[in-house]
UniProtKB/TrEMBL annotation:
GO terms for biological process: tRNA transcription by RNA polymerase III. Pfam families: RPC5 (PF04801), RPC5_C (PF19725). The lineage of its organism: Eukaryota, Metazoa, Chordata, Craniata, Vertebrata. Residues 146-155 have a biased composition (Basic and acidic residues). Residues 146-169 are annotated as: Disordered. This is RPC5 polymerase. One of its GO terms (cellular component) is RNA polymerase III complex.
Amino acid sequence: MANEEDDPIIQEIDVFLARSLLEKLYLFQYPIRPASMTYDDVTHLSAKIKPKQQKVELEMAIDTLNPNYCRSKGEQIALNVDGTCTDETSTYSSKLMDKQTFCSSQAASNVSRYAAAVYKKGELHLTPLHGILQLRPSFTYLDKADAKHREREAANEGGDSSQDEAEDDVKQITVRFSRPETEQARQRRVQSYEFLQKRQAEEHWVHLHYYGLKDSRSEHERQYLFSQGHGLAENTELIKSPSEYLMMLMPPSVEEENDKPMAPSNVLSMAQLRTLPLADQIKILMKNVKVMPFANLMSLLGSGTDSTAVLRCIQQVAMLVQGNWVVKSDVLYPKDTSSPHSGVPAEVLCRGRDFVMWKFTQDRWVVRKEVAAVTKLCPEDVKDFLEHMSVARINKGWEFMLPYDEDFVKKHPDIVQRQHMLWMGIQAKLEKVYNLLKEHLTPKKQEAQSAHPLLVSGEQRVNMAKAKVKQNYGQLEKEFQKQKAEMKSNDTSAKMDVSNIRIKEEPVSDEEPMDTSAYEGMNNGIVNGLHPEEDSTDSLNGHLPGGCIDRVAQELKAFVSSTFKKQFVLTLSELKRLFNLHLASLPPGHTLFSGISDKMLQDMVLDTGCKQILVPFPPQTAASPDELKVYALWEAGDTYDQHRQVLLEIFSKNYRVRRNVIQNQLSQECGEDLNKQEVDRVLKDCCVSYGGMWYLKGTVQS
């Protein structure tokens, strides 16, 4: 209220909308002229317009008598353009540059918010503008001068040559017939810059008659800028509420939206996406996401979308793989396209990708080398196929990226059956094209698999194992008490039978089920043969006899020390693997067979001068807990201890590092310029290179 009192209304002005020049009124913006030159001084010689393009050319006279006009320069320009002869085609008939041409360009594509206003007798009359054109000088006369110059040079060269040389030699002419133009080639030609320029040049000029500022015709036309009637019926557009009136004066800008940079092709605007037909929405989503569960697709399409219509559309652009929808190959690789890596046509790429999709309908795992051997495609193309729908696992292969969607399979058995029939047809085509062997057609462990891959979570496996252990608990307890009694009666308890103790080994792959048989049940609830609740120096069958603990510690320390002096950096998983191999090479009855727990092994690593390196693994890592524990030898007693320590400090803050960063850090911390051989030695001791980056040994995740 205070602001309104400080800014009172001084005058109210009536506003009228004039319609007489609607869609006829243009605003011309001339270049800046000297202050001494006014509109009255300008003489328009001619004017012409191309209505469709809204392009105007004005020819304006130059005052050659003005003291600021350079006559010698004007004569030189006229001579360069027209030469010495004057005729009807001459640009400057007076042998003097006495005129200049101005060519227009659109200043704004959307002029609906602009209007010309005339204020008269307390009334404001508005006429909407149909276009705003900026006039700039045209220098086509310079092109004409260059053409004249080239003609004179060609004439001079032709005059110097002899008559014999002037005669044209007989030359062989090759006649070629153009191929029929395809639809795609025609669209490219129509959208080309040359075609658009040609279309613009084909439009004929419409010559106009120019009326001066004080001409009677101009005075007459100027009256149309005023509203012809002041009644309410003439200006109903202005009888609006304040908000509607402001919206009319300042409508939402379409131009600003067009000026915004376009998003990348793989970035979707959900607001724009939902304005498209349902089939196009699904096609765009699947083309960008490539693999999607049906529930996720429904959530992206918004509430109220008919699931039946979605199912009908999704089958046109995607195939069902393990209960999830994977985009069809011909959607990603349309006809008449080729591979960006090898140039292979789209038809071959579609067959190769269909083979990969079909393999995932048989198994959750696919081996890249097998795909490359069958399809005969380059590694880059095969990698693209696999990255579309799977994730690489170290030493295992490529696993389908989404879990089996059992809910969709149960709810839509008819869709599943239809998709199964389609895959049977694709399989028949692949057999003919690739001459598939029986081993390619039969999934691994087919007799143990159901119609779809059975996924068992880690918690379910643990519950199954616990149930089996409870069933065999009585038998296991009897065997345990029997072995304990035998150990007490045997003075040489260190010479235990190796067959009764089994060292814990990690499963080779996730496909192997957890074995909880009665024979191997001895290791249930123990780590490397020890119960976790017991002391780390306790054996499986009670405490070791006097003196045996020291011998076990010495043997274990010798193994850990020698191993780290060779490897320098090891994960706990790799250390346990090497320890198991070491045990396998020992004779029966060795002291190390008394049982070594994970805790005892880790404590011994720290006692031998090693340190745990807290490597910042990426959040999405699939590494096991033992693979996340990284140990390194801190002091080896050689000249490279300081260099290795600096390197380990780098990897305690970075998961992967470039070589130049490592070399710069080593030079700064060690205070010397290391040569390539010294840096290679340090990197070889502790790191491995993968994809142009350096990682600590055992920490690479791909």
